Amino acid sequence: MTDHDAHHDIFAVFTEIGIINQLGQTMLERALPDGLRMAHFGVLTHFVRRGGYESPTGLARAFQVTKGAMTNTLNRLSKRGLVAITPDPDDQRAKRVEITDAGRAMHARALQAITPVMQQALSSFTGDEFTAALPFLSRLREALDSARD
Predict the structure, then answer these.
(1) Residue 147: predicted pLDDT
(2) Which residues, including other chains, have CB under 8 Å from residue 56's CB and lie 6 or more apart?
(3) Is residue 114 within 8 Å of 97, Cβ to Cβ?
(4) Which of 80, 84, 101, 104 has the fewest beta carbons under 10 Å from its own?
């Protein structure tokens, strides 16, 4: 394989991932309940997976968005009672964010809503195909994650 072919393949992989992301995000966002957006679902998923609390700055860094964009997302979630934003007890100037019981319930409802849509859209693939793709995708994510810092 020549350098040109390798560069072409790398670009093709990232192009496919980008298209898959756009199509998947649009498909899932249409299925999310009560006007929940993918950004909101992402934050709720983050807390369900990791537990605990985070600062708005830490969340912005984790999601690679501006602090302003994350503040907007968190304010929308807070107004709906899905996250609690409180002063950090160690630094009263800072805030900390944690998911509420209502946020956990909304996350569960969202998963229920998107699961059938995902299953229908991906029904032509086998579990083995997903399993086979996962190691490459995980290594690619890890490489990109380590390169961002």
Answers:
(1) 87
(2) 67, 70, 71, 74, 85, 95, 97
(3) no
(4) 101
| Beta-bridge partner residues of 83 | 99
This prediction has a pTM of 0.82
- Please list, residue by residue across 115-147, b when 16 or more beta carbons sit within 10 angstroms of its beta carbon and e when fewer do: eeeeeeeeeeeeeeeeeeeeeeeeeeeeeeeee
C-alpha to C-alpha distance for 57 and 31, rounded to whole angstroms: 29
Please report, for residues 6, 15, 22, 79, 89, the alpha-carbon distance to residue 11 in angstroms, rounded to integers and kept in the order given: 9, 6, 17, 41, 46
Could you give the residue ranges of the DSSP H alpha helices within the chain?
Answer: 3-31, 38-50, 56-63, 67-79, 101-121, 127-148
Query: pLDDT tens digit string along 54-93?
Result: 999 999 999 999 999 999 999 999 999 999 999 999 888 8
Judged by DSSP in three states, 53 sits in coil
Checking if the pLDDT of 1 tops 80, the result is: no
Rounded distance, CA 6 to CA 2, Å?
Answer: 6
Identify residue 115 by its one-letter amino acid code: T
